[in-house]
Specification:
GO molecular function: metal ion binding; nucleotide binding; nucleotidyltransferase activity; tRNA binding
CATH topology of the largest domain: Hypothetical protein af1432
Structural class: alpha+beta
Strand content: 5-15%
Pfam families: HD, PolyA_pol, PolyA_pol_RNAbd
InterPro entries: Bact_CCA-adding_enz_type3_sf (IPR050264), HD/PDEase_dom (IPR003607), HD_domain (IPR006674), HDIG_dom (IPR006675), NT_sf (IPR043519), PolA_pol_head_dom (IPR002646), PolyA_RNA-bd (IPR032828), tRNA_adenylyltransferase (IPR014065)
Number of domains: 4
Distance between the termini: 102 Å
Number of strands: 11
Strand order of the largest sheet: 3-4-5-2-1-6-7
Organism: Saccharomonospora cyanea NA-134
Cofactor: Mg(2+)
CATH class of the largest domain: Mainly Alpha
Number of helices: 22
Helix content: 40-55%
């Protein structure tokens, strides 16, 4: 048994060594791709007596074979010296981050951020550091968030600087900190949320001591502004595996302070009132919605709005749960309650208004389809479905399809057939009518002329009445629309000219 264990360990070590070698090859290949820019820049710094390093996420991504045209550098040169060095080399230079030691430059489509070695200190009450410049690359790297981001490559020599074994951690896909996690997270609690983001984005696993520190220190995230939390959460959600990132947030208690409605969906299953766990269901819906991003009316980029809606579509269930006689469980109007909760939470996280409106509307509409399978929908109901969804219709299609998580294959197939049929009806009616722009058959100017009205609330009421007719009956010809308008005016007591 001991001999077999030794063999397994040797095989594991050999496998890790091969991954490290492959990672180094990736890095060299990627660095060669950008070497004209990096080498030119390094030459300019060397001529001025300074060293230049590719650092942090740029090195990590180079090792993963996914280096972008946004490059991060660090140097012993002070910001004013950096400005002088790059001013004659770059196509553009900016200094918006200069108080933190960062100078930006662009050259031939490549963006470079060059930051002076940092040796910051933190008061650990807020987040804003007292900026202090350092003198060594090692001192700079130890203050970085994770070991996989604490590597550097000296550009002139293409030599690695890896004092915290970041390369080995990268090969193992392990997320650990250069200093202790407690020190790192006390300096900047946002790093806990960033850990969850890297789990989603890059497929890393946090080291046990990182998970423990996140659990013990989760409440420290309250020191971070909502805007910064929102930015990290959004990056997590558009990552490759947001489910794992969300699960880490919930497991450590971080979600209790960032998205408390998500852990709030973990409903205990009563021995007499069986129902599915809403939290697990929502994570599955999120995964299925992501699959539909590319397979159903595909799009190229991850859809943040759809993913937020999928994760949060059932957050109204805990507040609306009722145990019914006979052992049933109901969640009446949870979509209405959920839409309000979504709006409140996303506002607190400082999401843009359009994101808030779109996500809350999808949550509000996600149950609308479920009366369709009984065959009771008229063409009028289909028009209203399309009109209420508006530009969100494609996303609503995906959300509703993703919301089917039943293990009963026959039931799942029936639901998908019903939605196929609804989409076919929408397409048929759309060929006959302009469903994308359902408007009354008479515009506001015609309404005022026919009824002899000045602009005001009555015109709006008349317009609304005609729109309802349009939804119920489809397009009306002009004379029919005028007759209906006159009939409505008589009912509400408007004296119509010429009658």
């Amino acid at each position: 048994m001991g001999s077999q264990t030794t063999v397994n360990e040797r095989n594991s070590n050999a496998s890790a060594a091969r991954r490290l070698t492959e990672a180094k090859r990736n890095a060299v290949a990627e660095l060669m791709r950008v070497s004209p820019i990096a080498d030119e820049l390094a030459t300019s710094f060397a001529a001025a007596g300074h060293r230049l390093y590719l650092v942090g996420g740029s090195v990590r991504d180079a090792l993963l074979g996914r280096l972008s045209t946004d490059l991060d550098f660090t140097t012993d040169a002070r910001p004013e010296q950096v400005q002088r060095i790059v001013s004659g080399w770059a196509d553009a230079v900016w200094d918006t981050g200069i108080e933190f030691g960062t100078v930006g430059a662009a050259k031939h489509g490549t963006t470079c951020e060059i930051t002076t070695f940092r040796a910051d200190t933190y008061d650990r009450v807020g987040r804003r550091p007292e900026v202090a410049f350092g003198d060594t690359i090692e001192g700079d790297l130890v203050r970085r968030d994770f070991t996989v981001n604490a590597m550097a490559v000296e550009v002139a020599t293409k030599s690695f600087v890896d004092p915290h074994d970041g390369l080995a951690a990268l090969a193992r896909r392990t997320l650990d900190t250069p200093a202790t996690p407690e020190e790192s997270f006390a300096d900047d609690p946002l790093r806990m949320l960033r850990a969850a983001r890297f789990v989603s984005q890059l497929g890393f696993e946090p080291a046990p001591r990182v998970v423990k520190a996140m659990t013990d220190m989760a409440g420290e995230i309250r020191r971070i502004t909502a805007e910064r939390v929102q930015a990290e959460l959004s990056k997590l959600l558009v990552g490759r595996d947001p489910r794992k990132g969300i699960e880490l947030m919930v497991e450590t208690g971080l979600a209790d302070h960032v998205l408390p409605e998500v852990p709030g969906m973990r409903l205990a299953i009563d021995e007499h009132h069986q129902h599915k766990d809403v939290y697990q269901h929502s994570l599955t819906v999120l995964e299925q919605a992501i699959d539909l991003e590319t397979s159903h009316e595909p799009r190229l980029e991850p859809d943040l709005v759809l993913r937020l809606a999928a994760l949060l579509h059932d957050i109204g269930k805990p507040a609306t749960r009722r145990f019914e006689p006979g052992g049933g469980v109901s969640f009446h109007h949870h979509e209405v309650v959920g839409a309000k909760m979504v709006r409140k939470r996303l506002r607190a996280l400082r999401y843009p208004k359009d994101v808030i409106n779109d996500v809350s509307q999808l949550v509000f509409l996600h149950l609308r389809f479920h009366g369709y399978g009984r065959g009771e929908w008229t063409d009028s109901a289909v028009r209203r479905y399309v009109t209420d969804a508006g530009p969100l219709l494609s996303r609503l299609h995906k959300l509703v399809r993703a919301d089917c998580t039943t293990r009963n294959r026959r039931k799942a197939a029936a639901l998908q057939r019903s939605y196929d049929d609804l989409e076919a009806r929408i397409a048929r009616i759309a060929e006959e009518e302009d469903l994308a722009r359902v408007r009354p058959d008479l515009d506001g100017n015609e309404i005022m002329r026919i009824l002899g009205l000045e602009p005001g609330p009555l015109v709006g009421r008349a317009w609304k009445h005609l729109k309802e007719l349009r939804l119920d009956r489809g397009p009306l010809d002009h004379d029919e629309a005028v007759a209906e308008l006159r009939r409505w005016a008589a009912e509400v007591g408007i004296d119509v000219p010429g009658e």
